[in-house]
Amino acid sequence: MASASNATHSNRLAAATSPYLLQHRHNPVDWWQWGPDALAEAKRSNRPVLLSVGYAACHWCHVMAHESFEDEATARVMNELFVNIKVDREERPDIDQIYMNALHLLGEQGGWPLTMFLTPAGEPVWGGTYFPKEAKFGRPAFTDILREVSRLFREEPAKIEQNRAALLARLADTARPAGKVTIGLKELDGAARQLGNAFDSVHGGLRGAPKFPQASLFEMLWRAGERSGDERFFELFDLTLTRIAEGGIYDHLGGGFARYSVDERWLVPHFEKMLYDNAQLLALYAAAWTRSKNLLYRARASETVGWLQREMTNEYKAFCSSLDADSEGEEGKFYVWSLAEIRDILGPDADYFAAQYDVTAEGNFEGHNILNRLKHLPRTTEDDAAGDPDEARLAMLRGKLLNEREKRIRPGLDDKILADWNGLMIAALAQSATAFDEPGWLVMARHAFDFVATHMTRNGRLGHSWRAGQLLLPGLASDYACMVKAALALNEATGERAYLDRAVAWQQALNRHYANPANGGYFLTADDAEGLIVRPSATSDDATPNPNAVTAENLVRLAVLTGDDQWRTRADALLEGILAGATQNLFGHVATLNALDFRLCAAEIVCTGPDAESFAREALKLPHLSRIVLRAPSADALPPSHPARDKVGAVNGSAAFVCVGERCSLPVTEPGKIAEAVRGMS
């Protein structure tokens, strides 16, 4: 790219007083300040006006300036076709208000940078916010927009307002050029509708049996609901999470979820418990809780963390891999009950408990009983507060049965420590700790992270598997992806810079040893790993999200937290490269689609000033699936090149700056209004 913001060239903005306008004085764009001279020039030359409104602390204003306004080729198109006017919204709030209101009336979302196209008389015709320099994710390139708007002014000036629909149609075509696969918000919405149509409206999850707790699929519904506001997506999402939470796939005595259900009702599990399933579901219940405050979700999260601590944590406080389905040579024997056993242990309370948990003399599984509460759905879980006599009574009875179950011969424990699965659980614990206000869970996450960082790392390189002091090296791309995810989750939860530094170091190692130049993604194995007949590079999801998908989200977070846009550029190349080859199997790449949604829709929240931590605590109450939180109490807390340094001095005192979908809000000066600001930008 020819970047030409150099001190040897100055435009009219050199005479401005606004620091924001002065930032653009060396652009190759022939900028005007707002005033009668600029509009007179538009009338004289019979060119439309391009109005660009921003402010000094607006991140995406700076991104668009760097991509387009500093670029010689883009500037030539702007200068030839338009009279270009630059406005500081803080200096001219009157102009900003007029044209931001016009943008809303045109049916477009507001925010900054504000980019409006006007007649020479200053009448608004069409506009938007940030436009990318090149077509990306279904969004047209900025120069394509410039040429099409100019063409309409030249060729059909009398019909410019009526031609808005035609303009949008033409721009949609340029955003999806022939011969190039493009996946953007339109395609995400279409895929989500298809997925919703495949869901079981009675039992949740995909129709039919067996049923797997496919967290990425469920997350896709949640994201579609957030994106569209369509409650039907949330209804399917909540139905599924509730059925899983009350089904036999959940261990109602000890906590934790089994691998899958062999039936369509979530009743009969394949009884093994995997660390990765429980990590993904824990994170999902935390996100669900932030929206619904459903007490069932809190209970299942708490019980699952209790199981993790009691049964899956080794002496070094890292997490073991799995529990077998079998004990004494019989699948599920450790978990099932007879009515006689229940009566023997619970005595006069047995019949009450049996009615609540579907326990009968005949049984519901090969003559035995799998505890579940499916018969009692739907229930009003909001009324099941901890002090409710029935729930308290049931908790006491479950405790008795759990104590008795501990006397049985236990299923086998696979006690190897896997870096990738631990990374998923560490991230889930950090995210859940903030969602549920459970500081003890954050302590667990820290301990497990420290184990992997200390005992499973050699010379800055991660290993994959540890057991009995033996480490298998080198690690896989999935280990780096999931441990970077864990480090970033801990950084957001605590604000501690060491976690971010570790994430950057591991991401750099992933780039050095695993990069796949063919698609912008990553091979599974390192470039110095044992030679195989082919180097694996699958991009589709398995029982866990594909490491390319995990890394795509990590890269977006890194861009915000470090202030280095190279990470966002790499994320875009990865997403475009992977999704270009995924169109024949989109639902095999759901985690990558979720990462794309995160790239396009996540809220970037920068908390500044001496009270930054109070703002961060409020921001962290938002769902972790759709927000990034950066603390910047002072400029010294950030690297010298971090764009958020400008925000620290932009307001007196403390504030939060919110950007969503490449559009930024005004500073939020009260912590309690952050959620409202995010909703207003969505």
SSE arrangement:
Elements: H1 19-22, E1 32-33, H2 36-45, E2 49-54, H3 59-69, H4 72-81, E3 83-88, H5 93-105, E4 114-118, E5 124-128, H6 142-155, H7 164-175, H8 185-197, H9 215-228, H10 231-246, E6 260-261, E7 269-270, E8 273-274, H11 275-292, H12 295-311, E9 322-323, E10 326-327, E11 330-331, H13 339-346, H14 350-356, H15 389-405, E12 413-414, E13 417-418, H16 419-436, H17 439-455, E14 457-458, E15 461-462, E16 465-467, E17 470-472, H18 477-494, H19 497-514, E18 515-516, E19 521-522, H20 547-562, H21 566-580, H22 590-601, E20 603-608, H23 612-619, E21 627-632, H24 645-648, E22 655-660, E23 663-664, H25 674-681
Parallel strand pairs: 1-3, 2-3, 20-21
Antiparallel strand pairs: 2-4, 4-5, 6-7, 8-9, 9-12, 10-11, 13-16, 14-15, 16-17, 18-19, 20-22, 22-23
Helix pairs in contact: 4-6, 6-7, 8-9, 9-10, 9-11, 9-22, 11-12, 11-16, 13-14, 16-17, 16-18, 17-18, 18-19, 18-20, 19-20, 20-21, 20-22, 21-22
Tell me about this structure:
The chain has 682 residues and is an alpha+beta fold. The chain is built from 25 helices and 23 strands. A five-stranded mixed β-sheet has the order 1-3-2-4-5, sandwiched between helices. Helix 9 runs parallel beside helix 22.
